[in-house]
Amino acid sequence: MADMEPLVRKYSDNGITTLTLNQPQRRNSLSMAMLQQLSEDLDTIAQDTETRVLVLAAHGNVFCAGHDLREIRENFDAHEFQLALFEQCSKVMQQIVNLPKPVIARVAGVATAAGCQLVASCDLAVAADTARFATPGVNIGLFCSTPMVALSRNVSRKHAMEMLLTGEMIGAVRAEAIGLINRAVDEQILDETVYRMARTIADKSSHTLKIGKEAFYRQLELPLGEAYDFTSQVMAENLQAVDAKEGICAFLDKRKPEWNDL
């Protein structure tokens, strides 16, 4: 019966969509099939005007153990498959970053290797204080090179290198301290914390959120002067939006804005 279960469960309510990795018996590993399903779901959500915020969660006591090593062993001699697997994984991570809606990782349990990469790729992350994180590829002779991309864009170089070179687990409190996650909370209030954050964000103009998220990631890669030039243009264009005018007027009139998402 387990094989009949969907690889990823999808649930939507009041503008918040939750995608739940649903292969706990395989430690929610990122097999090719899992990655392809995630990619399809992300494409759908990108076009879904009802979804304002995406929560990425997992079923079971492991958030995601990274790539499916059994699948990799079965394809030791299939270089084309190996390359396609890592390219598909990289595609999914970029889909998350490029998704025109904020993405929150809800982490309970362990997130290792590409699972840690998945957390780092999300815009925000909230974890149970019992959660643990690692990029342990070095321990099995396969350096976490693709997870390194997301990790090094979230934490400082030395913290990233420590995780990558030692392969050791770090706890949620440490992960919060180095910036891998936003908050480490008691597991009993994990859902409350995640969905309160999601509802707060979902209450904003989706058009404004789209503009801001895209600009955030673009300016990160620019020199300081170019970043200010770019974001000045973004703000001037944003000011022409219906919701920007509505928001400013509502603030000055001391009333709640009525978003048009335009």
Question: What features would you describe in this structure?
Answer:
- The chain has 262 residues and is of the alpha/beta class.
- Helix content is 49%, strand content 16%.
- Strands 1-2-3-5-7-10 form a six-stranded mixed sheet, sandwiched between helices. A four-stranded mixed sheet has the order 4-6-8-9.
- The termini are far apart.
- The model has no long low-confidence stretch (mean pLDDT 96).
Index terms:
single chain; 262 residues; alpha/beta; 2-enoyl-CoA Hydratase, Chain A, domain 1; Lyase 2-enoyl-coa Hydratase, Chain  A, domain 2; 2 domains; 6-stranded mixed beta sheet; 4-stranded mixed beta sheet; 11 helices; 10 strands; 49% helix
Cross-sheet strand order for the largest sheet: 1-2-3-5-7-10
**Helical region count?**
11
Q: Looking at the structure, what is the overall shape?
A: globular
Q: Average the pLDDT over all residues and give the rounded result.
A: 96
- As a percent range, the share of helical residues equals 40-55%
Quick one: biggest sheet?
6 strands, mixed
- At CATH level 2, the architecture of the largest domain is Alpha-Beta Complex
CATH superfamily of the largest domain: 2-enoyl-CoA Hydratase, Chain A, domain 1
User: Rg, please?
Assistant: 19 Å
Looking at the structure, the CATH topology of the largest domain is: 2-enoyl-CoA Hydratase, Chain A, domain 1
SS class: alpha/beta
Distance between the termini: 45 Å
Number of strands: 10
Strand content: 15-25%
CATH top level of the largest domain is Alpha Beta
Please tell me the total number of domains: 2
Low-confidence stretches: none
Order of helices and strands: EEHEEHHEEHEEHHEHEHHHH
